[in-house]
Amino acid sequence: MRTLRKIQSHQVLSTSSALIAQTQPNQLSSMHLTDNEASTPSGSTIRHTGRRPRSNSDAAARDSPSLVTSVPTQRRPARKTGSGVGIKRSFLENLVRDGPHNGNTKEALRELRYLVLSTGVDADGDGMSPYRVYLWLILLNVAPLPTDDYLVLVHRGGSPAYAKIRNDTFRTLATDPLFKRRVTEASLIRLLNAVAWKLHDSKAKPRSRPSSSRRLEMEMLVDTPPSIKEEPELETPGSDTKAVVNDSAIYVQGMNVLCAPFLYAARSEVEAFALFHYFVTKECPGYIRGAMDGVHKGLRLVDRCLEIVEPKLAAYLFSKGMYAELYAFPSVLTLCACTPPLPEVLHLWDFLFAYGPHLNILCIVAQLIRMRDTLLESPSPNKILRSLPPLDAKGIIALTVLLVQRIPDDVYAEMVTHAK
Known about the structure:
- This protein is an all-alpha fold.
- Among the domains are: 91-120, no CATH class; 129-201 and 249-282, putative rabgap domain of human tbc1 domain family member 14 like domains (Helicase, Ruva Protein, domain 3), CATH 1.10.8.270; 284-419, Orthogonal Bundle (Cyclin A, domain 1), CATH 1.10.472.
- It is built from 25 helices and 2 strands.
- Helix 10 (162-169) runs antiparallel to helix 12, helix 16 (293-309) packs across helix 17 (311-319) and helix 20 runs parallel beside helix 24 (393-404).
- This is Rab-GAP TBC domain-containing protein.
């Protein structure tokens, strides 16, 4: 046995084919099959371990050339991967990375939204995806921001809302270990303070908001035509073009939770800042005004939509005095980011950014419908609605797509504009 071990050790280090001829063929064959058992393509004894996969360069260093040539059929061909981590790229990731085919941006956005709805974003157990933040930047049409622009805001120090921000940041998703492990309170303070400075500066610079029109495509199946609703043209008079209306509007309570998923999903604070600032100033400026009139409009829409799609449940909740303003305020303000788990929030936001954040109203209604039997059987539904069940983004999205078909056009138009 000692002689055999010496021969084997020398055999691995040697590059001479003459040394291989001195050993017994049976010993070499059994030894090689043992070393490569886990990599046999057709073998039934493949074992998956927790170790990282070996790269091609590592394999070349560990396997001697002579051994490879002795049994050439045992080498498994290297698999080409697009992401570099051993996972084949999805169609959605390919589209995000490669851009539109033949320069057709409109068709590419249509396909991108449908892929978000049909296949979803590939992510690990923590909800992390290497391309999700770029998908959000594309869907929201947010241009790249120079890092120096963000640093200038950070270096200005505390904004007029700094004390309010510090009073909220330590409580942001305090019970979520995933968020606490990835996002520090310091980064949250920096980003919110920079946004506060930006909003503060915009008070003296009124700007007219250009009209916008987005086609919302709710495609149920591949072979069915899309159900499309057009957003009305938005024209804002010059007297109402300020992003904020008073000092308290540069920061309102709840912005810290709304900001949290951006920081969690982004690969840098600058990306998160660009996304968050655009979102609160373009998509839902009504949510951050001092009176939060956009949030209150959204709460009334939750009650109206529930009454339309599920009249029995709505009547029961109203009879108990349970209106949306009593239980749905955090869900409307934060686009359901207040309801764990965080990976499901990110999945839901993929859908909302693809087809419009106003659909969050129907996502809240969908959560109530999924609790329908429990609520109707409870003599005190207020106790159940104190905290909504954990998010199931896939089920909520599927139900929301169905609910869109049942909402009248006038109510849907109010949903589109309620946060403006």
